[in-house]
Specification:
This protein is mostly beta strands. It has one domain: Sandwich (Immunoglobulin-like), CATH 2.60.40. It contains one helix and eleven strands. The strands form two sheets. Strands 1, 4, 6, 7, 9, 10 and 11 form a seven-stranded mixed β-sheet that branches. A hairpin with a 2-residue loop joins strand 6 and strand 7. The longest helix has 4 residues. The chain is globular and about 50 Å long.
Amino acid sequence: MMTNGPFLEVVARSHKRRKQVEAIPGQDLIADEGHLELHVRIQCANWYDINRVQVFINGRMDPDHNYTRRTHPRMFSNDIVRFNQTISLTLPEDAHVIVATCGEDLKMGPVFGPRFGDRMPTAVTNPIFVDVNRNGFQFSQDDLGVPFVDSEDSQ
């Protein structure tokens, strides 16, 4: 996980032959038929806040899993644990899943000093690699609109 303050925990869960299996960021998870749950828990100190949680699938923002205090106020809290939710996902194919959180239009505050205090609270997990068909995780060939460098072109 990368963070400048928010403490972001994610556990992915699926059922494998009627037994629950779990993975944390950086690990692989077999999710039969692509069904899994993400348990997302975010803690913040009292001098900054988060107001958005976004799930990325294969590097792309998933519009169905974009949660903000404005659109989903009941999912957020003002306590130390700002977000503590289980999110259901169904993936049509193998995918890597990343969760990010931020405080849009918010700042870390004076505790971070003049150099860093104006920065937005942010945290991002490493990917969880989800195999939906039990043939080993297969990377997406989507270049996200940025073509991969061809080794011949780089010479």
